[in-house]
TrEMBL record:
The chain crosses the membrane at residues 121-139. GO terms for cellular component: endoplasmic reticulum; ER to Golgi transport vesicle membrane; Golgi stack. It comes from Kingdonia uniflora. PANTHER family: GENERAL VESICULAR TRANSPORT FACTOR P115. GO terms for biological process: endoplasmic reticulum to Golgi vesicle-mediated transport; Golgi vesicle docking; intracellular protein transport; membrane fusion. The lineage of its organism: Eukaryota, Viridiplantae, Streptophyta, Embryophyta, Tracheophyta. Keywords: Membrane, Transmembrane, Transmembrane helix. It comes from the Eukaryota. This is Uncharacterized protein.
Amino acid sequence: ELVDLFSGTKAQRRARIDDYVERLLDRISNDVLADDRRAAMIELQSVVAESRSAQLAFGAMGFPVFMSVLKEERDDVEMVRGALETLVSALTPIDYAREGPNNVVQPTLMNSDLLSREAESISLLLSLLVSIFFVIVVTQSASLKFNYKMCATHIRY
């Protein structure tokens, strides 16, 4: 389907990409099966990484969906990772000739502005960072304790 997204006139490409991004966001929000939501997340990350038009569409429609994923699906590591990777793609500039030089709107600047205007989004991202740091510290600490116990056990015998 990605091949079809990038054929035709600029207006046709933009309309197809907008529709595709909207469908993927709908699947992420409404699909019942977690695997289907994850697959949609992977597809969306891919198209947002490849197209400034998709970055614009994501900025126009995607932030509420992604904030919801980050709030409500914190325990699903794959979904959170996909959401964060898609967010990074939406904020990373693309410079492709096929996007055309006449695109005066800078989607990454627009998306950065949209993200920074929502105080909740910044605090949510920071809370994720704290959670990730805590998990890493606890995991490393538990691993070190386990390794220490293993060494102590071997030394005694």
